[in-house]
Write a structure and sequence with these properties.
This protein has helices spanning 42-49, 85-89, 92-98, 116-126, 132-145, 161-174, 191-206, 218-224, 242-247, 252-259, and strands at 2-13, 16-27, 31-35, 57-62, 65-71, 74-77, 101-104, 179-183, 211-214, 227-232, 235-241. It is α/β, with parallel strands linked by helices. The strands form 2 sheets. A 6-stranded mixed sheet has the order 7-8-9-3-10-11, with helices on both faces.
Length: 263
């Protein structure tokens, strides 16, 4: 089953082409790694997929439903052309689509004045309107899965970076999303903490969770992802089986990019 598809996505920022005619899809149970140099458009692409930013033109589907249409070479979201934050926040159909995915940021983005448990519980209650007792039980289950069952009443400032990132993953899982996006989830962590977070994501991959992961961890992408996309200067320069692309790339630009990880 296809979970997500984007076609002919274009995005410019301050007159600079950041993404140019990007197309790919993600199927249920698949792990897709997005790799590339800083400034290649990886994070912008993830922001567009999660409605934190909007494409200039192109089309997008979630769960087979077209969310973004291409109208006169401009994008229309859920049939409306007004892409102001206030307007889209009120669009009930778009709100429903947003509840189908989770997003884990590189800098955690936890609410500092809320406990760990409240951070994990908030979205399912406010976005999906689920029963508070059921959400609490689910949240505690995911915190236990992350090895943080004894940190439920702590505040983010009392946790290590690795623990905070595991809370962020638990928060994403508690929404019970169809797909989870990770934006360089280990870039703010030291090597020891990076290892513990990558271990969690590897376990999620074994459970066949659908994931899109922007990462600079090439060995991790090689071993965990099913497919990989190499973004270069706003275009997909190479894509295919993750292990093959990372160990035996076909394009010279991909080879040059990957070579620095072998030095």
């Amino acid at each position: 089953m296809e979970i997500f598809r984007i076609e002919n996505c274009k995005k410019s920022i301050n007159g600079l082409n950041v993404l140019n005619d990007i197309s790919f899809s993600v199927n249920e149970g698949e792990v897709l790694a997005i790799i590339g140099s800083s400034g290649s458009g990886k994070t912008t692409l993830l922001r567009i997929a999660t409605f934190l930013d909007y494409m200039d033109s192109g089309e997008m589907w979630y769960l087979g439903k077209k969310i973004v249409s291409n109208v006169s070479n401009h994008s229309s979201y859920i049939g409306q052309k007004d892409l102001s934050i206030d307007s889209l926040k009120k669009n009930k159909e778009l709100i429903k689509v947003k509840s189908e995915f989770g997003l884990v940021f590189q800098n955690f983005n936890l609410f500092p004045h809320w406990s760990v448990l409240k951070n994990v519980m908030d979205a399912p209650i406010t976005v999906k309107k689920r029963n508070i007792d059921e959400v609490r039980e689910k949240a505690l289950t995911y915190l236990k899965y992350m090895g943080l069952e004894n940190k439920a009443m702590n505040y983010p400032c009392e946790l290590s970076g690795g623990q905070r990132q595991r809370v962020a993953i638990a928060r994403a899982l508690c929404l019970e999303p169809k797909i989870i996006y990770f934006d360089e989830p280990t870039s703010a962590l030291d090597p020891e903490l990076t290892s513990e977070v990558l271990k969690v994501i590897k376990n999620l991959a074994k459970e066949k969770r659908t994931m899109v992961i922007v990462t600079h961890e090439m060995n991790f992408a090689r071993d965990v992802a099913d497919r990989a996309i190499f973004l270069d200067d706003g275009i997909i320069a190479e894509e295919g089986d993750a292990y093959s692309l990372i160990t035996n790339p076909k394009k010279e630009r991909t080879k040059k990019f990957l070579q620095k990880f072998k030095e």
